[in-house]
Write a structure and sequence with these properties.
The chain has eleven helices and 16 strands. By secondary structure, the protein is an alpha/beta fold. The strands form three sheets. The chain has a ten-stranded mixed beta sheet with strand order 7-6-5-4-8-1-9-10-2-11, sandwiched between helices. Helix 2 packs across helix 7 and helix 6 runs parallel beside helix 7. The structure holds magnesium ion. The site of magnesium ion has 6 residues, from loops.
Length: 465
């Protein structure tokens, strides 16, 4: 079946499942705000001593803060593919490999049309859908852009802010250096058309925010999904003049404080339009901090390692849920949750059926969010590329291959295999320092059974890049 036929089939299947939106029962709006490479320890409400994040702190005080919220990937492409489809990247072709971690312009693949994104499912239910910010699920062709995956509109970059400069020298022919936001040659798209290239990437957070507020205002009479995937604090770092030089944490702090301001603007727009009581807002980050960037990278707090790694710092990220009147205020939950769960949760809240023709790895987070039950999630699988590196069950985490970070100073990372695996108790030892495998053979056996069950039902999709 070609792509357009697959699309048409999916649309029919989804509209059949959901029916058209009834005017009498308006389902809630969904807003997902995603930072890029923001670490577990980079917000005030997660313990950062100098980065000021009053808006996110207030969002947590008015809503729910997760201590154990995970991404299903440790770099941009797999983690976003999983968030939007509720499926492990190994199932949707977006896992990457040991050597190719993320998709770029040289690739011809992208998120397959056979995948159902939150946007596609909610659009079939009558939602207005928009993606603002970084996509990173398409190669060099438009076939997998947001507009081909259920989003009515797109405003943002196709890839990371460091991926369009190619092999440029600094200074380039125009005399620009790497300190110049234009040197990075980023193309800003509206839907599928390039609006600007090079784009002044200093202005991205401000412009994404303006676009988000405009979208909220324009759709106040209709349910909407807003996926606001910020470009920062992925390096190179740039902030608008108003935020530059303001944070005691330096430029990284300036950039995070501007993101915090943006969250405040979005929540304020929802309050102003009287949509706050009917909107779930979820804030998180696509992976851990890029530690190899030193002062330009963030912090995972007391978690070990960062971006690119399957140690906790690579995949455990801030997670804050906000819905005044529905989510009880000031709750800190220690329940296990993952970004893939936003798929099931969003569909459930929208009143649309969960697709039954595929294996989903997400669970409905409603019992946790509405504080009336335990998490339905029991296990976390930590993939690096297409290989399973670690598994968490309850407080225990077994590492078959303890992954190094994103880059090891230009050297090829060393993958050491452990059989039996290393075992850490994340409650007693959140920094994963003390191997307790020899004390808990029964836990290792239980985790081995989970892996066996997982592998028995796993059919890896053909890699898209
Ligand atoms: Mg990232």
């Amino acid at each position: 079946m070609n792509n357009s036929l697959v699309s048409r089939f999916l649309c029919l299947a989804l509209s059949g499942m959901a029916g058209v939106l009834q005017a009498t029962a308006r389902p809630p709006n969904i807003v997902i705000i995603l930072a890029d490479d923001l670490g577990y320890g980079d917000l005030g409400c997660y313990g950062h001593p100098t980065i000021r994040t009053p808006n996110l702190d207030r969002m947590a005080a008015e809503g729910m803060r997760f201590t154990d919220f995970y991404m299903a990937g440790c770099v941009c492409t797999p983690s976003r593919a999983a968030l939007l489809t509720g499926r492990l990247p190994i199932r949707n072709g977006m896992a990457g490999s040991h050597s190719t971690r993320v998709i770029g312009s040289r690739h011809t693949g992208g998120l397959p049309q056979s995948e159902i994104t939150i946007a596609r499912a909610l659009r079939a239910r009558g939602y207005a859908t928009m993606c603002i910010g970084k996509w990173h699920l398409a190669g060099g062709t438009p076939d997998a852009l947001p507009t081909r995956h259920g989003f009515d509109a797109f405003y943002g970059l196709r890839w990371s802010n460091d991926m369009e400069a190619g092999g440029k020298k600094s200074p380039d022919e125009a005399g620009r250096t790497r300190d110049d936001p234009l040197w990075w040659n980023c193309a800003l798209l509206r839907d599928e058309t390039i609006l600007e290239q090079p784009t002044d990437i200093r202005t991205l957070t401000a412009r994404y925010t303006q676009e988000a507020v405009r979208f909220i205002r324009a759709h106040k009479r209709r349910p909407f999904l807003l996926y606001l995937a910020h470009t920062y604090p992925h390096t190179p770092l740039f902030a608008t003049a108003r935020f530059q030089g303001q944070s005691p944490r330096g430029l990284y702090g300036d950039v995070v404080e501007e993101l915090d301001w943006s969250v405040g603007q979005v929540l304020e727009a929802l309050r102003r339009e009287r949509l706050d009581k009917n909107t779930l807002v979820f804030f998180t980050s696509d992976n851990g901090p890029w530690l190899q960037r030193k002062l330009d990278g963030g912090s995972a707090g007391l978690l070990r390692e960062g971006k690119g790694s399957t140690w906790e710092g690579g995949m455990r990220v801030p997670g804050i849920a906000w819905w005044p009147g529905k989510i009880p205020p000031g709750v800190v939950t220690r329940e296990l949750a993952c970004a893939m769960d936003l798929f099931n949760t969003s569909l459930k809240l929208a009143g649309t059926a969960i697709p039954g023709d595929r294996i989903l790895d997400g669970v409905d987070l409603s019992p946790v969010l509405f504080d009336n039950g335990k998490s339905l999630r029991e296990v976390m699988f930590y993939y690096r590329g297409d290989e399973l590196f670690a598994v968490r069950k309850g407080p225990f985490k077994a590492h078959f291959i303890p992954a190094p970070g994103y880059g090891s100073g230009g050297r090829a990372p060393v993958f050491e295999r452990h059989d039996p695996p290393l075992l850490f108790h994340l409650g007693r030892d959140p920094s994963e320092q003390f191997d307790v495998a020899h004390e808990h053979p029964e836990v290792l056996a239980e985790i081995a059974r989970e892996v066996e069950k997982h592998r028995a039902g796993l059919q890896p999709a053909p890699p898209q890049y």
